[in-house]
Amino acid sequence: MWEAFVKLVSPTNPDEFWEMVTAFITIVVAVVAWRGLRSLNLTKSDILIRSEREARHYAIAKAEELAKVIIPANRALSTKLGEAQIPVFVKSADEVTFDALKTDHLPKVKEWVEKLPGPLHNDCIVHINLLEAWAMYFTNAIADEKIAFGPCAPVFLAQVAQYFPIYVVLRANQRSGKYPNTIKLFETWRHQLEKAESGIKMKELVKKISELQKEAGGTDPT
């Protein structure tokens, strides 16, 4: 073995020289490849850690936005709806479905939406657009929805249910947006909420919507 090694590092003819060069190149390539793979693995790990950290950060930021911006805006809208004597449309959690085959009360939701005064209708559109932009962070995995679910899901689900008639009418209009992020997050969180062994359920949220709007001066739906 020693003689072979000496022969390799001390070539005596062109063939042995090129054999030495090939051997060294192979060793260098192997070392570079090993370092490259190790660096790549470390980079992937670092990217994953940073991505998870950013997702948690965005989840907290979105929760704060819900508390500081979206909830106060919805409270103001609920007061206006109450003052305008606009009843809460949804009576049962089963009514809140975005499946086109099950949404058989389009005439009723259109009638409800048509009762909204123009400025109030516009305010509701602005609000559900805000909810759509908010939901996008979770449906696109920018924010960690697992972290946000506990504190945010009940509020988000209740607000989507509150403006359910507007969603139905807009989604039926070919010129309007379909609010895909809102609907996707709603269905995901609703399923998780109903699956949970404890905590508030969708039917309780629907009841709470009516109570809050009644406190603001509204009436029960007829």
Amount of beta strand: under 5%
The chain-level mean pLDDT equals 79
Query: Are there runs of 5+ residues with pLDDT below 50, and where?
Result: 4-9, 218-222
Helix residue percentage: over 70%
Count of beta strands: 0
Q: What is Rg?
A: 30 Å
Number of domains: 1
| End-to-end separation | 97 Å
The class by helix and strand makeup works out as: mainly alpha
Could you characterize what this model shows?
By secondary structure, the protein is an all-alpha fold. It has one domain (55-215). The chain is built from 8 helices and no strands. The protein has helices at 2-9, 14-83, 106-114, 118-139, 145-162, 164-172, 180-195, 202-215. Helix 5 packs across helix 7 (180-195). It is globular and about 55 Å long.
Keyphrases for this structure?
single chain; 222 residues; mainly alpha; 75% helix; globular; disordered C terminus
Helices and strands, with pairings:
Blueprint: H1 2-9, H2 14-83, H3 106-114, H4 118-139, H5 145-162, H6 164-172, H7 180-195, H8 202-215
Helix pairs in contact: 2-4, 2-5, 2-8, 3-6, 4-7, 5-7, 5-8
